[in-house]
Design brief:
With about 240 residues, the protein is mainly α. It contains nine helices and six strands, in the order ααβββααααββααβα. Strand 4 and strand 5 form a beta hairpin. Helix 3 runs parallel beside helix 6 and helix 7 crosses helix 8. The longest helix is centred in the N-terminal third of the chain and has 23 residues.
């Protein structure tokens, strides 16, 4: 009985000492307050957050005023729309010219030539050629991709291709598709000075998409995260 009492006393002593040590630690920084983050908006164009009436806005859109302090919505309603995959910001990648990042993205869903199994699958119709999709922008490119995805479902495939190599279209971890998208985005920013200027103008704001993204979206779908990564690289290069 006595040894157990000693053990209990030792345990109580340890708990007390741990609590005292915790009290002695310096308080953790709570980070910038919401008020200070709101005040920081004064360093940026006010129209980035200008309220837009919800009435008449498309269902898919997240409006500029939805940004919380420290964030900005990459809205297609003003110059931040240049950062969107939809923007007509032509670039050359691996020797080929693309009208937009969306065109580059959706082009990979289309057959590469007559020997491509996607082209030879019986009963399928492809509304565009791969080359045509590469020159599309915005919703036109998105619609072309939607048509291609219908064909992919009919075929029962989950891969796309680039330069003759097939790879998964959707993957939880960054794969070849992700790496191609990141590389193409870097070229878009590098080859379009106005895009680079706008991206750097966002400073340290957290970029948020202007549309609702699916839960658990693949890494390459989170284009704002990729843009912030490229922005950080540019900022480091300027120092």
């Amino acid at each position: 009985m006595l040894p157990r009492l000693r053990d209990l006393g030792f345990l109580v002593l340890c708990v007390v000492l741990t609590a005292l040590a915790a009290d002695a630690r310096p308080p953790r920084s709570a980070g910038p307050s919401a008020d200070s983050l709101l005040a920081a908006r004064a360093a940026y164009p006010a129209h980035w957050w200008a309220p837009v009436p919800q009435e008449g806005a498309p269902d898919w859109e997240i409006l500029p005023q939805a940004a919380v302090p420290g964030e900005v919505i990459v809205s297609k309603r003003h110059e931040l729309g240049l950062l969107s995959n939809f923007a007509a910001t032509p670039f050359t990648f691996r020797g080929r010219r693309y009208a937009s990042l969306e065109g580059f993205w959706q082009m990979m869903l289309y057959p590469e030539g007559p020997d491509d199994p996607r082209m030879r699958f019986p009963g399928l119709t492809w509304a565009h050629t791969r080359e045509e999709v590469a020159q599309l922008t915005a919703f036109e490119a998105k619609r072309a991709g939607a048509l291609a995805e219908q064909n992919m479902r009919t075929m029962g495939i989950g891969w796309v291709s680039f330069e003759g190599r097939r790879f998964a279209y959707r993957s939880v971890r960054p794969g070849r598709h992700y790496r191609l998208i990141v590389a193409a985005m870097r070229e878009k920013v590098r080859q379009n000075p106005e895009v680079r200027t706008v991206l750097l103008a966002t400073g340290d704001l957290v970029l948020r998409p202007d549309h609702h993204q699916e839960v658990g979206a693949c890494p390459e779908w989170r284009y704002c995260d990729i843009l912030m990564r490229i922005r950080a690289e540019l900022q480091r290069a300027r120092r």
